């Protein structure tokens, strides 16, 4: 099987969180990906929310989705070079858990420099049969 890919530029607004989530769910459905759609939707929600909350501005960011038989890789590319941090759990703060979720659920994740900004990505393996 070849790799299927999709990318979309989105504005750094709260509406883009919902758009990205639905886009990923629609792609997984249309590609008949065996990966857990709820995990993928939750994690893309966290990555996009980080852009909206921490990068902001007027510059669009890019959502990237790639699917092969062995991996689902989803990334978010933005213009900020500041990388995300997995914070210590603070039960008194209702925010700051997003990257902990990504680290706990994704099979792999990371951040890399990309054209003066960064790409934050995660990968999910398909479930074993």
Account of the 3D structure:
There is one protein chain. The chain has 129 residues and is α+β, with helices and mostly antiparallel strands. It has one domain: Histidine kinase-like ATPase, C-terminal domain (Heat Shock Protein 90), CATH 3.30.565.10. Helix content is 35%, strand content 28%. It has 3 helices and 5 strands. It has a 5-stranded antiparallel β-sheet with strand order 1-2-3-5-4. Helix 1 runs antiparallel to helix 2 (37-55) and helix 2 (37-55) packs antiparallel against helix 3 (98-105). The radius of gyration is 14 Å and the shape is globular.
Largest sheet: 5 strands, antiparallel
Regions with little confidence, pLDDT below 50 for 5+ residues: none
The number of domains is 1
As a whole number of angstroms, the C-alpha radius of gyration is 14 Å
Q: Quote the CATH topology.
A: Heat Shock Protein 90
Name the CATH superfamily classification. Answer: Histidine kinase-like ATPase, C-terminal domain
- Proportion of residues in extended strands: 25-35%
Proportion in helices: 25-40%
Number of helices: 3
Top CATH class: Alpha Beta
The neighbouring-strand order within the major sheet is 1-2-3-5-4
Q: Architecture in CATH?
A: 2-Layer Sandwich
Which whole number gives the mean pLDDT?
89
Terminal Cα span: 18 Å
Q: Could you state the order of secondary-structure elements as H and E?
A: EHHEEHEE
The general outline is globular
Based on secondary structure, the structural category is alpha+beta
> Tally of extended strands?
5
């Amino acid at each position: 099987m070849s790799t299927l890919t999709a990318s979309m530029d989105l504005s750094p607004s709260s509406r883009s969180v919902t758009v990205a989530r639905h886009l990923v769910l629609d792609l997984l459905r249309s590609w008949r990906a065996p990966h857990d759609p709820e995990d993928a939707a939750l994690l893309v929600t966290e990555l996009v929310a980080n852009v909206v909350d921490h990068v902001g501005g007027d510059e669009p960011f890019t959502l990237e989705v790639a699917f092969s038989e062995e991996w689902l890789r989803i990334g978010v590319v933005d213009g900020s070079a500041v990388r995300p941090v997995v914070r210590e759990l603070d039960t008194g703060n209702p925010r700051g858990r997003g990257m902990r979720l990504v680290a706990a659920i994704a099979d792999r994740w990371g951040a890399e420099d990309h054209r003066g900004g960064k790409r934050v990505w995660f990968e999910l393996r398909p479930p074993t049969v």
